[in-house]
Design a protein that fits this description.
The structure holds two protein chains of two kinds.
Chain A lengths: L8 E14 L2 E14 L3 E5 L6 H9 L6 E6 L2 E2 L5 H11 E4 L11 H6 L9 H14 L15 H13 L5 E5 L7 H18 L2 E6 L2 H4 L4 E6 L2 E2 L4
Parallel strand pairs in A: 3-8, 3-9, 6-7, 7-8
Antiparallel strand pairs in A: 1-2, 1-4, 4-5, 9-10
Helix pairs in contact in A: 4-5, 5-6
Chain B lengths: L1 H12 L1 H34 L5 E6 L12 H8 L14 E12 L6 E9 L3 H4 L4 E5 L8 E5 H6 L8 E4 L2 E10 L8 E5 H7 L7 E5 L6 H10 L5 E5 H8 L1 H36 L1 H10 L3 H28 L5 E6 L4 E6 L4 H28 L2 H5 L5
Helix pairs in contact in B: 1-11, 2-8, 2-9, 2-11, 2-12, 9-11, 9-12, 11-12
Classes of the chains: A alpha/beta, B alpha+beta.
Chain lengths: ~230, ~400
């Protein structure tokens, strides 16, 4: 960001705008954003509610499309992809951590983590190995057979992180990952994300409105009224 | 595997609505299969009536025994046909019969029922060797003794051995009970043809049944007889003749029953649609999550269709199991083709069970299609409830 010309940008946005129509009125959420995120970055995007930070994350995740502009993530230009290609692309490149964990209640922790692997050609044994590794990494190897309702909020979010990393995606996107957690659990999750960035070199983009959470990232950028505050 | 577990566990997670929907689907399948069983049981009973080695002959133009008339001369010529089996005692395996009806009061409900009465000769057991006398004895020629089919003995209190039936202003003593392998003969009363003809002032027989020495000779036999100007008869194989006598009732059961099933199925399909719509509404975030993880619209459609079809399978199994309880249960009703009482059993075949299951799965799929399509078409951001944050 401070050095946009550096090699291997994972994310490259060019003149991205996003407008919604609400009650016949056009609301501009993202206004002509252009920036790059280099590989291996742990970036925190801060901003007040309604500033467009989640929309920005969704555009980078390929679950929302910009009204105009180009989005290139992990070497793929997203604005031209069909729905099916976009789904396949997400499965391959994006690990997503939700604020409300979004675990599937009828599946165990291990099965929740295994879900993204159902879209791969891995064998049953390979999938089981990946799931064990991911859950061990987040410190929940002993909770594999627990259902989400049997886990605490912090543990659920750790399962959410394990699900995000199990398929070894290019980038992890986290939308207010500590928003529903107590201080201690939030610290655990932030430590975990920082470790994934530091030790495994994962590119992480985290949206948050909590300054203490943002401090754990390598860089912080502010989004205000659809405009990204650029570094001085 | 994981994907199937996901769908099936979601059904279990909402087990009350799932069970209610399954019960609705099951009820329709039960009715559907029961109707098939009923129509099949009727056809089977009538199809089992008679022996394929036997030929039934009646006057040309007659549709059944009731409106057929064969003179003594005609029957004499017919019995002398070379294709007719000759028995050990040098008698030909041929019986001249008269078909009548009698009204009796039923044992269980006290209602009146019309019964088929067959005037025959003692040689009838040689012509129809699969029939067995299970109680008492055969009637004596020239007497007013009768024997009754097993179903008649079961349903009518005055049709038991040593009891007396009153019809044609005469009293007829029941001297025996015969079993006819669950065929239509089980619902008949048999007596001496000459006595019955005298009682009812008949001069002609209704039909003649011949046992052929070589059953495969029937087509040639039929063709030759029907061309013979002396006898003026039509010939049919015995089972085909009796099966045709139940065609109308079987068709009525099928058409009415299947129409009712179709009407009920609309309700069951709507039930499945409501269940699946509620499921989709409760799981929008889940749908958004799965799509975010990389599952396609097709995967979502597949998951919800799998769920609704699983509802169908469960409903199908329930309905078929319920219908299986009816298997071999005997009911008695009036055969509209003959106007006489006929007892027959529900009969479940593997094909019917398969058709019931397939019908249930189709109901589930049709019911689930609209909600599954709606789930698949959901916008991810909208499903996640994160629009324009």
């Amino acid at each position: 960001m401070s050095q946009p010309a550096m090699i291997d940008p994972v994310v490259s946005l060019h003149n991205v705008t996003k407008t919604y129509s609400r009650g016949g009125t056009e609301v501009s959420v993202l206004k002509d954003l252009s920036f790059v995120i280099p590989a291996g970055t742990f970036l925190a995007i801060m901003g007040p509610s309604g500033s467009g930070k989640s929309t920005l994350l969704n555009v980078m995740a390929g679950i929302d499309r910009p009204t105009s502009g180009s989005v290139v993530v992990a070497g793929t230009r997203l604005d031209g992809l069909s729905e099916g290609d976009m789904a396949r692309w997400r499965a391959r490149h994006i690990g997503y951590v939700f604020q409300t964990y979004n675990l599937i209640p009828v599946l165990t922790a291990a099965e929740n983590v295994e879900l993204p692997l159902a879209l791969t050609h891995l064998s049953r044994r390979e999938r089981a190995d990946h799931v064990k590794t991911a859950l061990r990494l987040v410190g929940l190897a002993d909770r594999m057979d627990h259902y989400p309702r049997q886990l605490s909020g912090g543990q659920e979010q750790r399962v959410g992180v394990a699900r995000a990393i199990v398929s070894d995606p290019t980038m992890i996107l986290a939308d207010e990952p500590t928003g529903n957690l107590d201080r201690e659990s939030a610290d655990d999750i932030l430590t975990l994300l920082a470790r994934l960035n530091r030790e495994l070199g994962k590119t992480i983009v985290m949206v948050t409105h909590d300054p203490r959470a943002a401090e754990r990232a390598q860089m912080i950028r502010h989004l205000e009224k659809g405009l990204l505050e650029m570094p001085p | 595997m994981l994907w199937s577990a996901y769908s099936l566990r979601n059904l279990w997670a909402r087990r009350v609505t799932t069970l209610l929907t399954v019960a609705g689907l099951g009820l329709v399948v039960f009715v559907f299969v029961a109707i098939l069983m009923l129509a099949h049981g009727l056809e089977e009973t009538m199809g089992r009536t008679g022996d394929s080695a036997n030929a039934v002959l009646f006057s040309k133009g007659a549709l059944s025994e009731i409106d057929s008339s064969l003179s003594r001369d005609q029957t004499g010529v017919l019995a002398a046909q070379p294709e007719v089996l000759t028995l050990a005692d040098h008698q030909v395996a041929a019986v001249r019969e008269i078909a009548l009806q009698l009204t009796l009061r039923k044992h269980d409900r006290g209602s009146l029922a019309s019964l088929a009465v067959r005037g025959s000769s003692p040689g009838v057991f040689a012509v129809r060797p699969r029939l067995r006398l299970v109680q008492g004895r055969l009637w004596q020629p020239g007497t007013t003794e009768v024997i009754v089919g097993a179903q008649v003995a079961r349903q009518f209190p005055e049709a038991r051995v040593n009891e007396t039936l009153r019809f044609g202003r005469r009293e007829w003593t029941v001297v025996g009970v015969f079993e006819a392998e669950g065929s239509g003969f089980d619902s008949e009363v048999w007596g001496d043809a000459e006595q019955l003809m005298a009682t009812f002032h008949r001069t002609a027989f209704s039909s003649m049944t011949l046992r052929l020495a070589e059953p495969e000779a029937f087509p040639a036999f039929k063709a030759r007889l029907e061309r013979d100007p002396r006898v003026k008869v039509s010939a049919k194989r015995e089972p085909e003749y009796y099966e045709a006598k139940a065609e109308g009732l079987a068709r009525l059961i099928r058409v009415t029953g299947l129409f009712l099933t179709m009407v009920f199925s609309v309700g069951a399909i709507l039930g499945a649609t409501m269940t699946m719509s509620a499921s989709v509404a409760h799981r929008t975030t889940e749908i958004g999550t799965l799509r975010t993880l990389g599952f396609s619209r097709g995967h979502i459609l597949q998951a919800f269709l799998l769920e609704s079809m699983a509802l169908g399978v469960a409903g199908g199994l329930l309905g078929v199991s319920g219908a299986a309880l009816l298997n071999s249960m005997t009911i008695s009703t009036v055969n509209w083709d003959t106007g006489t009482e006929l007892a027959f059993a529900f009969h479940l075949t593997p094909a019917m069970a398969g058709e019931g299951l397939l019908f249930a799965v189709c109901m589930g799929a049709v019911g689930g299609l609209a909600p599954a399509t709606r789930a698949a078409r959901m916008e991810i951001v909208r499903a996640l409830g994160e629009r324009a944050a």
